[in-house]
Amino acid sequence: MNNRWISFTALVVAVLCLLPIAGVVLAAFFGSFDTLAMLADTVLWEYTWTTLTLVILVAIGTILVGVTTAWLVVTCDFAGRRLFEAALVVPLAFPAYVLAYAYTDVLDHPGIVQSTLRSVMGWGPRDYWFPEIRSLGGAALMLTLVLYPYVYLMARSAFRMQAATPFYAARSLGASPYKTFLHVSLPMARPAIAAGALLVVMETIADFGTVAHFSVQTFATGIYTSWFGLGDRAAAAQLALGLLTIALLVAALEYMNRGRAAYATRGRQEKFVRFSLSRRKALLAQLVCLMPVLLGVIIPTVTLILMGLRSEQDIFSPRYLRFVENSLMLAGIAAVVTVGAAILLGTYHRFCGTRRSLMTLFVGRLGYAVPGGVIAVGLMVPFARFDNWLDARMEAWFDISTGLLISGSIWLMIAAYMIRFMAAALGSYDSGLSTVTPNVDAASRVLGQSGWATVRRVHLPVLRGSVLTALLIVFVDTIKELPATLILRPFNYDTLAVQAFRLASDERLEGAAVPSLMIAAIGLLPVLILCAQIGDWRARPRVGHLSES
């Protein structure tokens, strides 16, 4: 495989990644605006306001939880710190809509919490007020509990890499640990925190399962309603274009803001020494770190298990085994295709290093800023028209009906997953590829190896861990993906995520617990691998009590 072939294939992948955006724009501007005008008079402003409010609430919540817990596990020493350092990542294994199903069963009017209150206090249904879980605030809480690890991981890494000298200099000038954190450590970590918050915002904009279950009207639910409820693909594309505009605007603003931030520490970096907390403050730190794990992992898991035991779902029935088979097959194919495309783009830029190769990497990463529902609409509209055109031509010329050749197959779903999760695969592969020096490539070429032979015989064996990580990330993200799967799946082709959503939509929450548990169990594998990698098991020296300084 020569470099010309690599260049051509990389450009094809980049064009495919751009296709959904082009499809959404064309469908939005060349379709009828009648439905959009009706939506503008009724719910369009509600979509906009609710989406923006949800983004702000989740961003604030994840930053507060993620930064606080990251600072505690990095700078303070207390019992259970090493366990919390890894456990705080575990909520990543849970989709937000799974938590929504669990907490609805617990906190809704017929749930155990309100039933117990009425039984103990002797209240009637109208004698008390209880927060409504099926609300905008409830959706924000669910998303915060599963998305804060993005900010936590970024902030933790930033705090660990900071030199101790600026911190100790501020302390020597009389600043308290709290003020030093606010005025020294936090500003230095701001670019990393902003990067984590950007991931959170993108995931919040793209969420469909949680807001749909809680009946929160956002752009994501509007796209689905226009597509399936109103049967208007043009209106769905127009709403998708609005959602895409918000996502890209957020990404551009964060990129420009982070690009102006630069912090550097010169000279020898002194090793940071953790503070040994007093008993009272250690207990407080333990509670702060425990609450996200308790609310985001323990309570939902126990609730889902109890719900599943009460349900009538047979996980070993042929129907359920087909859901599992479909989910695993889609995720497996998507993982291989996506990581293969990421290796192709990374190799193209590695060997060429031109503006064109850099642009293909940028386009490949762009998919993460595009919600799954937008990608689905952007792919379905042009390919459905192509299928209809091809079917009409084959009928006229050869009296043969081709049917939905592309839009009715799983390969359009695979393409959507590849576009959506390419950024995650590229990030993992590029981080590993950066450890391979250019001299290794030069030596391989001197020995007569072609570009692809260098990748196959040198890069891939060295980067086996990075490739495996990328495969696991894409595999799990595909298992959890809901809006793209709902829109693009062929007729009667259901997955675990679709089954959970269907049962929850019918208010059969106990039945929805079974596929939800399976999704979380599959997602737990890469998270456990990540937990094993991030733990800091080396003891560090400690200084006096924080309360005494």
List strands and helices in order, with pairings.
Elements: H1 3-30, H2 34-42, H3 44-75, E1 76-77, H4 81-87, H5 96-107, H6 112-121, H7 136-161, H8 164-172, H9 177-206, H10 209-213, H11 219-229, H12 233-259, E2 274-276, H13 279-310, H14 318-352, H15 355-366, H16 372-398, H17 411-433, H18 438-446, H19 451-462, H20 464-480, H21 483-488, H22 496-505, H23 509-534, E3 542-545
Parallel strand pairs: 1-2, 2-3
Any overview of this molecule?
Helix content is 76%, strand content 2%. By secondary structure, it is mostly helical. The chain is globular. 44% of the residues are buried.
Task: Give a nutshell description of this structure.
Helices cover 76% and strands 2% of the residues. It is mostly helical and 549 residues long.
Query: What would you call the structural class?
Result: mainly alpha
Q: Helical region count?
A: 23
CATH superfamily of the domain at 1-19 and 312-507: MetI-like
- CATH fold topology of the domain at 1-19 and 312-507: MetI-like fold
Rg: 25 Å
Which CATH class of the domain at 1-19 and 312-507 applies here? Mainly Alpha
Q: How many β-strand stretches?
A: 3
Q: Strand order of the main beta sheet, please?
A: 1-2-3
Low-confidence stretches: 262-268, 536-549
Shape: globular
